[in-house]
Design goal:
The protein is of the alpha+beta class. It has 15 helices and 14 strands. It has 3 domains: about 70 residues, Alpha-Beta Plaits, CATH 3.30.70.100; about 260 residues, no CATH class; about 110 residues, Immunoglobulin-like, CATH 2.60.40. About 50% of the residues lie in helices and about 15% in strands. The protein starts with a strand and ends with a strand.
Length: about 450
Amino acid sequence: MSHKNISCTYFVSGMHCGSCEILLQKKISKLKGVREVTAALNDKTVTISYQKGHKPQIDDLNDQFADLGYSFSAHQTGIATMNQSTWTQALVILILFTVLYIIIEDTKIFARFTLNDSSSLPAFFGLGIVASLSSCAALVGGVLLAMSKQWNELYGGVDEDKRVTPFVLFNVGRLLSFALLGGILGLIGSFFQISLQFTAVLIIAVSLVMVVVALQMLGVSWAKKIRLGFPRFLSSYAADERNFKGKYMPFVSGALTFFLPCGFTLMAQSIALTTGNFLTSAVMMSAFALGTLPVLAGISFSSLKFQKSTSLGGTFNLIAGLFILLFGVYNVNSQLNVLGFVSLSDIFAKSNVQSVPQGLGVEIVGEGENQYQQVNMEARQFEYFPKNLTLQAGIPTKLTVTNFNVAGCAQAMWLGGLYDDVLYLNTPTSTAEFTPQPGTYKISCTMGMVPPVLVTVK
């Protein structure tokens, strides 16, 4: 006698990314009598098709998923009703965001810790740590925990050292795939002629992804409707441990985690594409994967549960989300400087008007055909002086920059629209010659993080 399938829909709080959909579908589909499961992030629901008499009960689901930070209910909760508590939280976040951004802009704390194709390896390692601690990584951890049962059966009865083997294979496969596939992303990027301006546009796109991820972590409803990651069929295949049986499958399953949907991984992958270099991209993605290794190793050997405490998980999402939001906005602002567009830096520049130090600025030299503009600037630590320049259009210009212990990306001066090449400040004095055209320009570093010098050509 056949059993008719019926369905029910529950609302789920705690969903914030595509990984959540796959994780919920994978776990609920294993329950007795369940035929099909569809999780939807945009309305935070899960629809379960089941045999008569086998309806999953809300209390049972809440018990099963409590450790992962999900809760089920028959009615929608947490609708965007802006009560006093919600407004207070939003106001606190806004104030914190403003204060922290001012501190960052003033202290240049992100000067050596940002995310683009010139970022330091510790920056990618740090991103990997954040990714491994977020609930976005619950999918990778869930895959690992689910597979551990198969692996224990496969290696059962052997000594302790050999039972460790599949976990080692999983993590080695993950590290190697991130290096190899990350390098391939860089190789793909090398087929395109990537200019500094094009790179800036790509970084803005990546930074906007960061902003979306941050807003999802902060619980912004419309942001949760945006899907980030690879096609669902590929991610679902990689997340299903039933597809990976055999002695060497732990290595393969670890390698395929490169395709699991996570906003953090997508950030790193997008930046790797902009490098246009196989080795650079491979090293970047390796650093990211290494950052995730400690937590994944902990799961391998201690069955660690992600976000076991709902309150602590919420606190982490708030702090990490705010930090990533700052990161994203800071990166967008920096790249606007590279492109010569209006940015938040202009506000700080106008509020920090300084007198022109003696010997610096613009001077007209010679007459007639021999006339030219001599521009004298200084580069000190992480700033350029003077902060404002006014040039005459159509007159040849000679720029001389004196180097006083210039640091970080400030060593690579970018005069977008004025001078075609990067002016490297690797000697006591550096020079460039160009003929300016009417307009407004900015002088910053190639990463746009140096407070820009505003140039007006009349």
